[in-house]
Write a structure and sequence with these properties.
Oligomer: single chain
Strand order of the largest sheet: 2-3-4-7-6-5
Radius of gyration: 20 Å
Strand content: 25-35%
Helix content: 25-40%
Order of helices and strands: HHHHEEEEHHEHEEE
GO molecular function: DNA binding
Largest sheet: 6 strands, antiparallel
Organism: Halanaerobacter jeridensis
Protein name: DNA-binding GntR family transcriptional regulator
Number of strands: 8
Keywords: Coiled coil, DNA-binding
Length: 227
């Protein structure tokens, strides 16, 4: 479902939650309505742009301070000790959206892109993060070069509302593309693939794939594993 398929009321609420720093007039222009109607909808939905802005600022302060709990997070660790993760260069390309018609645009003019970042250790590529999502058409390599994390791509969509769904993990033989990208350490070229859906306000706005050399990492789950 694209943004254009939502009602004006739903579009107004989405714009407010995704980017609380938009002016009332900006939201009205994006939705093709009047500022008065935008104020009415936000009031009926009990949404305050000021409160959303304050919450956004608090959450960003917590993220920058590293105040987050890892107790409920699965962790990828290298089998070899005393090795450090490094983030490689980021690449981007525009792709056809016919295969990903379940993904939602948050703005009508956005185009579908695939963004890839290699994960390295001692200059060897052991992993590869891939995100498929709609972005503004003015995205460029210079902007990507200044990212600390691919998740920063969602900053103008409301990064604090980003959630994930259906993390599916499987081990499989590497296809030719993965064989050419990853520096495998074992006799078999096996990859561990983790795929999950990226959500904003319960709307599927992207797909994230992680690929790792299955011979070089271990996956640690917190708590109980139900089989």
């Amino acid at each position: 479902m694209g943004l254009e398929e939502l009602t004006k009321k739903e579009q107004i609420i989405n714009f407010a939650r995704h980017d609380p720093f938009l002016k009332i007039s900006d939201i009205a222009e994006n939705v093709d309505t009047t500022p008065r109607y935008v104020r009415t909808i936000l009031s009926e939905a009990n949404i305050s742009l000021m409160e959303l802005r304050e919450k956004y600022a608090r959450n960003m302060e917590q993220r920058l301070a590293g105040e987050r709990s890892d107790l409920q997070q699965a962790t990828i660790r290298l089998l070899e000790k005393d090795k450090d993760f490094e983030a490689g260069e980021i690449s981007i390309k525009q792709i056809d959206d016919l295969e990903f018609n379940d993904l939602v645009r948050t703005k009508p003019q956005e185009k579908l892109y695939k963004i890839i970042q290699e994960k390295l250790v001692d200059n060897h590529v052991y992993g590869w993060q891939e995100i498929i999502t709609y972005l503004s058409s003015d995205i460029n390599q210079e902007r990507l070069n200044h990212l600390n994390s691919l998740y920063e791509l969602f900053g103008d969509k409301g990064i604090n509302n980003v959630k994930f769904r259906n993390n599916i993990i499987q081990v499989e033989e590497a296809n030719p593309i993965l064989e050419s990208r990853l520096d495998f350490t074992g006799e078999q070229n096996l990859v561990m693939k983790s795929q999950r859906i990226i959500l904003i306000d319960k709307l599927p706005i992207g797909i994230e794939n992680h690929y790792f050399d299955a011979n070089s990492i271990k996956l640690i789950f917190p708590g109980e594993l139900v089989v």
